[in-house]
Amino acid sequence: MNLFKKFVKYSQFSTGDFENIFAGFQVPPCPQVVLELVNKLRNPDIDIEQIVSVLESDASLAGQILKAVNSALYALPAQVTSINKAVSILGLREIENIAIGYAMTKTVKDPEQQGFDITSYWTESILRALFARNCASVMEVETEEAFSAGLLQDIAVPQLLSQWFQVYSRAYNEWLRQGGDLHSMETHLFSWNHCQAGAWIARKWKLPDLLICCIGLHGASQTEIRELKLENTAVAPVALSSRLTLTGFSEQAAAQLAEQAGERGIGTEKLLELVKKSEKMVEELAGVFGVRISSGIEVSNVIEAVVHP
User: Fold this and answer.
1) b/e for 122-144, b at 16 or more Cβ within 10 A?
2) For 249-288, what is each residue's pLDDT tens digit?
3) Residue 184 and residue 272 in contact, taking contact as beta carbons nearer than 8 Å
4) Cα–Cα distance, 1 to 205 (Å, whole number)
5) More confident residue, 166 or 59
6) Long-range pairs of 201-207 with CB within 8 A, sequence gap ≥ 24
């Protein structure tokens, strides 16, 4: 059974209800240059010159690639001014990650609704993406796919708040009051959740099945992922990253994260190390993507209180 069929079997996505549920919902368009790039990157025989040609066709994306390669993330001894050289240095998977980030910055707009903070959204998205990639490295699964899906996992939330506020705010506001898992609150009230909605958007964008599954299953527990036999894919670290949140992250939430990480052989000390490593890179990556983030991320402090009481 392929990855997408496993996701379909697991979720309400299989009923086809999303076409009816979201009738009239305007799927945010993915920039055409990103769609073209992702499609070309799926071809194992792709010529790097073809990738360079696609990137050079969009000055804005090309600029973001150059900004990334010349950032402190890579600490190169000399400035890179050529897209060809940037692609050679970064590699095709990292190029895809930057392109996904570019698509998000062009797509995600502040819904300007009470209770939603766009800077927290970007901070959390980038932190989760970095943490997912770091965990994927430890788990020895697809690191770059984990990063992309980690970044995209909550793409549906601002869309739902913008287009469906009268309906969706019931779940969102209740979650703000009570805390816990947003997807659980949504499922309780609507019988669907933002994880599935995000997968639906990714499907409309024609993104690879693995990314769709990672987005759609990011609310699943490690036990559920194991039952689906997806524990050795990027689905696992992305689901783990979803436990990192800037909203109401408590010692109890940190303990739950540690428990889930422990199921994958990531002990508490290693978990703390991975979170701190991720936090250090958030500001630099936000600069690459050109988004504002929250100051003073304190997630690792909460985890440290659990690890070293």
Assistant:
1) bbbbbbbbbbbbbbbebbebbbb
2) 888 889 999 999 999 999 999 999 999 999 999 999 999 8
3) no
4) 22
5) 59
6) 201/27, 201/28, 201/155, 201/156, 201/159, 202/152, 202/155, 204/27, 205/27, 205/30, 205/35, 206/35, 206/38, 206/39, 207/38
Domain boundaries of the chain, sorted by first residue: 3-24+111-307, 29-107
Question: Which token pair is 209?
Answer: 């099945």
Q: Report the alpha-carbon distance of residue 92 to residue 260 in Å, rounded.
A: 31
Which letter does DSSP use for residue 279 in this model? H
Reported confidence tier of residue 292, pLDDT bands at 50, 70, 90: very high
Question: Residues with Cβ < 8 Å from 304, sequence gap 6 or more?
Answer: 272
- Sequence length of the chain is 309
Structure pTM? Answer: 0.91
Over residues 87-136, the pLDDT tens digits come to: 999 998 889 989 999 999 999 999 999 899 999 999 999 999 999 999 99
Domain 3-24+111-307 has CATH 2.60.40.10: no
Contact indicator for 33, 39 with CB cutoff of 8 Å:
no
CA dihedral 59, 288, 290, 272 (to 10 degrees): 150
CB 221 within 8 A of CB 239: yes
Contact 135, 240 (CB under 8 A): yes
